[in-house]
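cron nightly-structures :: item 1 of 1
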Amino acid sequence: MIRHIVMFKIKDECKAEIPQLVEAFYGMKGRIEGMTDLEAGADFLHSGRSYDLALTTVFTDRKYFDAYADHPVHRPVKAHMHEVMESSVACDFEF
């Protein structure tokens, strides 16, 4: 199993869009082969080290994780995130 975790800092002028970004993430759930789970949410603490938004996905194996980057369901979500994000960090691990 592969867990993929991404945290996003959203541009100030796009922060009002955060609820819709969470919805867009959940719109991928159940639509990508090999993805067994997806959770997303907005930060509520807003501390100096907080990111605005997090996405966690689980894949059955590396083959499906690798295919996810260019999956037709993921591509438009990823493209929009690149428009609204200031930065992101990720961690991917097997368990």
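cron nightly-structures :: done
The mean pLDDT is 98.
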